[in-house]
Amino acid sequence: MTHVPKQKIAFITGGNRGIGFETARQLGQAGALPVIGARSEQAGREAVEQLRADGIAAQWLLFDVTRYADHQRAYDHFHALAGRLDILVNNAGVYLEGETGVKDLYNAADVPEAVLRQTMEANFFAPVLLTQTLLPLLQRSAAGRIVNLSSILASLTLHRDPSSPIYSANSVAYDTSKTALNGYTVHLAKALAGTPVKANAAHPGWVQTSMGGSAAPMAVADGARTSVQLALLPDDGPSGGFFHLGEVLPW
After folding, report:
1. Alpha helix locations (H) across 88-138?
2. Burial letters for 162-192: b for 16+ Cβ neighbours within 10 Å, e otherwise?
3. Which fold would CATH assign to domain 9-248?
4. Does the record carry Oxidoreductase as a key word (predicted)?
5. 157: exposed, middle or buried (C-beta count within 10 Å: 0-12, 13-18, 19+)?
6. In what order do the strands lie in the sheet with 145-149?
7. What local confidence, expressed as pLDDT, does residue 1 receive?
8. Phi, psi of 120 (to 5 degrees)
9. What is the pLDDT, as a whole number, of residue 5?
10. CA-based end-to-end distance of the chain
11. Which of the residues in the chain have pLDDT under 70?
12. Which of 18, 43, 77, 202 has a CB 3.0–4.6 Å from the CB of 226, allowing a cystine?
């Protein structure tokens, strides 16, 4: 290591567009060094150039969360950069069941196996395994923070409530993948109890992105706020929770 950045180092998977990019921007504005995980060199370079145009120093890393060799490459990158990682935002994910909030292509009786497996791979197994790979670097941080991008659609409580806004949602693969990620978040926080590392799940809101769809009511800037809040929690902040804009959501 030649020059170790003094500011917080944040890795945002899927950070070249949408909520991930805005999360990188807001973390950069807060003084962190955002490192964007992007699946192509062009996407990564363009994202960094956009941030630099806004006066934010940033980096990019060729990274596909479902390509497990990339997990070790990410570890090697941050180990060489600083010997630590301060913030991990598990932002990358997929939605393969139509347009969010508009029409579900399948329900629990007919969702294809391929959709289930691809969704669970990207939204659950990949972020869990990445977290395990990078955890030694997060444990070297004075205030490690793990943010798992979840969704209100993960809430079993709300799915069972006929009066809730998500009662009619039937995107079983996506919803179940995020419920599983919530479960991992709880167990991870328990495993990290008594250490400086905190892990929480974030519901960004229904946001106007390629995944969120045209009917979404929230702007991307607002959709990133929960991730940023959880990434910058103070020492006395919560761990093992499920939040949206500072409010606790039901499991």
Report:
1. 113-120, 126-138
2. eeeebeebbbbbbbbbbbbbbebbbebbeeb
3. Rossmann fold (3.40.50)
4. yes
5. exposed
6. 59-62, 33-38, 9-13, 87-90, 145-149, 198-202, 242-244, 247-248
7. 44
8. -65, -35
9. 77
10. 43
11. 1-3, 101, 207-218
12. 202
